[in-house]
């Protein structure tokens, strides 16, 4: 049964915005595998006319996502980037986006190489310093694009401070909440206008779907985004919506376990002689630990570290010697992944720009899964030892 609006997060994961299927009582949302719907007379239908415009499985997921992020409207897209593209299409040529300088490479590419050609201006700034950020705002600035924790440096941006600043200046804010998941962080509660998810990651949680979503409380924005969802047509299919709905039912459990495992791994990495720096917002030594503790429930399953021997070759030795950590792009699934941002997820960012934010040639990013924590620690320690022997 639909969760009460004030029900706690675990209850929202399972019941938020959801009701048994009105036709059959089916407890799990059915997969409405159809492209069109019968009409009793021209224009007379049961709320659905064509599946690009609407599909009941998608509607259920959108309602569930709205409940999880304490929003009013959820709008799903065929990928995280198509969700971002829809948000950016609400802007006009000449408008400017200020985005985090430590940003997912695909988001950077969409802002610069794709939408830059249509007159959208983007600047990439350090969002940790609110005063400095305020100095970058111009008449043209219409949107702050905030990622926190950032990918892959795990920097933390103070969401409340930025949304306060933006609201005062009449600028919209969107927080990419992919790394945290709504279990750990709820940006709308901190004043953001929109939250973006690559649902491909923690929401889906099983590395079997590509999808994106935007959640908002702002009806005017929601209307524009529903319009673009239909008018541009980057919609997810009903099977994928079902899979994400199913994934969300265990979101809280998976993220809790990933956080626990990550804590354990971080301690071990910090003591390893091969490792130069460990980046994890849960570390008391993390420069923004206190802000992370203020705005997040826990510190997540993403960990980055680099090596004293700062070369791609050294990183490759480590990554090729793990057993449970699979060398692959993506994150947020039940299985642990290991990746090399400089050559994989962030290859589209120029080297100097990468280095300026600490994204070194040997930086390794872990998406810690929900396997047994001891096994994961042994796996990483073994890979580091083998890499050291080969060096
Ligand atoms: C932080 C972040 N935002 C957005 C995206 C894009 O999502 P998708 O791959 O679903 O298009 C990703 C993908 O890795 C990501 O890591």
From TrEMBL:
<keyword id="KW-0456">Lyase</keyword>
<feature type="modified residue" description="N6-(pyridoxal phosphate)lysine">
    <location>
        <position position="201"/>
    </location>
</feature>
<dbReference type="GO" id="GO:0004123">
    <property type="term" value="F:cystathionine gamma-lyase activity"/>
</dbReference>
<protein>
    <submittedName>
        <fullName>Cystathionine gamma-lyase</fullName>
    </submittedName>
</protein>
<dbReference type="GO" id="GO:0030170">
    <property type="term" value="F:pyridoxal phosphate binding"/>
</dbReference>
<keyword id="KW-0663">Pyridoxal phosphate</keyword>
<dbReference type="GO" id="GO:0019346">
    <property type="term" value="P:transsulfuration"/>
</dbReference>
<dbReference type="InterPro" id="IPR054542">
    <property type="entry name" value="Cys_met_metab_PP"/>
</dbReference>
<dbReference type="Pfam" id="PF01053">
    <property type="entry name" value="Cys_Met_Meta_PP"/>
</dbReference>
<comment type="similarity">
    <text>Belongs to the trans-sulfuration enzymes family.</text>
</comment>
<dbReference type="InterPro" id="IPR015424">
    <property type="entry name" value="PyrdxlP-dep_Trfase"/>
</dbReference>
<dbReference type="GO" id="GO:0019343">
    <property type="term" value="P:cysteine biosynthetic process via cystathionine"/>
</dbReference>
<dbReference type="GO" id="GO:0005737">
    <property type="term" value="C:cytoplasm"/>
</dbReference>
<dbReference type="InterPro" id="IPR015421">
    <property type="entry name" value="PyrdxlP-dep_Trfase_major"/>
</dbReference>
<dbReference type="GO" id="GO:0003962">
    <property type="term" value="F:cystathionine gamma-synthase activity"/>
</dbReference>
<dbReference type="InterPro" id="IPR000277">
    <property type="entry name" value="Cys/Met-Metab_PyrdxlP-dep_enz"/>
</dbReference>
<dbReference type="InterPro" id="IPR015422">
    <property type="entry name" value="PyrdxlP-dep_Trfase_small"/>
</dbReference>
């Amino acid at each position: 049964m639909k969760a009460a609006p004030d029900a706690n997060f675990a209850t929202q994961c399972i019941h938020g915005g959801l009701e048994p299927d009105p036709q059959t009582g089916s407890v799990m949302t059915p997969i409405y595998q159809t492209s069109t719907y019968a009409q009793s007379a021209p224009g007379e239908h049961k709320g659905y006319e064509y599946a690009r415009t609407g599909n009941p499985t998608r509607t259920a997921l959108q309602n569930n996502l709205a409940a999880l992020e304490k929003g009013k409207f959820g709008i799903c897209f065929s990928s995280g980037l198509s969700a971002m593209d829809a948000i950016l299409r609400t802007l006009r040529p000449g408008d400017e986006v200020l985005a985090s300088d430590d940003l997912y490479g695909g988001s950077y590419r969409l802002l610069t190489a794709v939408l830059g050609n249509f007159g959208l201006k983007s600047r990439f700034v350090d969002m940790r310093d609110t005063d400095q950020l305020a100095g970058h705002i111009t008449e043209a600035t219409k949107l702050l694009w905030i990622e926190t924790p950032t990918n892959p440096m795990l920097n933390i941006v103070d969401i409340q401070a930025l949304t306060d600043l933006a609201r005062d200046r009449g600028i919209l804010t969107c927080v990419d909440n992919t790394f945290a998941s709504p279990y750990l962080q709820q940006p709308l509660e901190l004043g953001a206008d929109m939250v973006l998810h690559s649902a491909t990651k923690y929401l889906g949680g099983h590395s079997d779907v590509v999808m994106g979503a935007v959640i908002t409380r702002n009806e005017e924005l929601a209307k524009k985004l529903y319009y673009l969802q239909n008018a541009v047509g980057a919609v997810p299919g009903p099977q994928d919506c079902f899979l994400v709905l199913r994934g969300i039912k265990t979101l809280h459990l998976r993220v809790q376990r990933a956080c626990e495992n990550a804590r354990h791994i971080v301690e071990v990495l910090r003591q390893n002689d091969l490792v130069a720096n460990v980046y994890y917002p849960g570390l008391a030594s993390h420069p923004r630990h206190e802000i992370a503790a203020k705005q997040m429930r826990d510190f997540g399953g993403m960990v980055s570290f680099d090596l004293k021997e700062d070369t791609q070759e050294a990183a490759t030795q480590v990554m090729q010697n793990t057993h449970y950590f699979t060398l692959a792009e993506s994150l947020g699934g039940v299985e642990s992944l290991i990746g090399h941002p400089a050559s994989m997820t962030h290859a589209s960012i120029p080297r100097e720009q990468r280095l300026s934010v600490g994204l070194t040639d040997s930086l390794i990013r872990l998406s810690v899964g929900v396997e047994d924590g001891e096994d994961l620690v042994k796996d990483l320690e073994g890979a580091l030892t083998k890499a050291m022997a080969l060096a």
